[in-house]
Design brief:
Blueprint lengths: L15 H6 L10 H7 L15 H13 L2 H14 L2 H15 L7 H11 L6 E9 L2 E9 L5 E9 L6 H14 L4 H5 L4 E10 L2 E6 L1
Parallel strand pairs: 3-4
Antiparallel strand pairs: 1-2, 2-3, 4-5
Helix pairs in contact: 4-5
Length: 209
């Protein structure tokens, strides 16, 4: 939910993937998945009153445990290389909804979260907080095999959800003002992709420079 955009209520939707992929409202305060993983046994009994969301919970469990981490990382990483900000944003929001807490919302955490997701292929070198231009960019990605593409990412953490787009623009402006791409140009990379990413709790916004 960014700016004036409003999410729809998932009335009658019992498929968790449909709910998440279409950006419906979904709030789970039960810590259901965490408790299931911590108390996992050979057999688990789920008791719920009728019309109390049992089908949706079973769907959530199914998709959570059937997710292929490598499939998600592949889709995410190739979107980063291809300048596909929409897919990056969707995948990041999906990862955060499944894996982080509201209490993790600070800039260094998001920085580490991104670096971890980007560790996908030995062909690409991930550099963090490296000096370039007149400052230190958050993240560089460099194609060390073909030397064809490099990526610059600057991440920001917002205090509220409303200014995420503004924080993205601020990040992109910082990339230009601090000339973070200059070092990559000097190394001979012909294509440099730039992203500003803003986070707030379990939400993010991604903009292509």
């Amino acid at each position: 939910m960014f700016g004036n955009d409003k999410k729809e209520l998932p009335i009658g939707i019992e498929d968790f993937k449909v709910l998440i992929d279409n950006n419906y409202y979904f709030v789970d305060k039960t810590l259901f998945l965490r408790d299931l993983m911590h108390r996992f046994g050979k057999v688990s009994l789920f008791t719920r009153p009728r019309r109390f969301g049992k089908t949706l919970n079973m769907s959530m469990i199914r998709y959570f445990f059937e997710q292929s981490e490598e499939d998600h990382k592949s889709k995410f990483f190739h979107a980063v290389l291809n300048g596909d900000a929409k897919t990056i944003e969707r995948e990041l929001n999906s990862w955060m909804n499944r894996s982080i807490s509201y209490h993790d919302g600070y800039e260094n955490y998001y920085h580490g979260f991104l670096v971890g997701l980007l560790q996908y292929s030995e062909q690409y070198l991930i550099e963090s907080n490296r000096e370039s231009g007149t400052g230190r960019s958050d993240i560089f990605i460099k194609d060390t095999l073909n030397h064809e593409i490099a990526v610059v990412i600057e991440a920001k953490a917002a205090d509220t959800e409303a200014p995420l787009e503004q924080e993205c623009r601020k990040a992109l402006k910082q990339i230009e003002e601090k000339q973070y791409a200059n070092g990559l140009l000097n190394e001979g990379y012909p294509k440099i992709v730039k992203y500003g990413i803003a986070f707030y709790q379990k939400y993010c916004k991604v903009m292509l420079g």
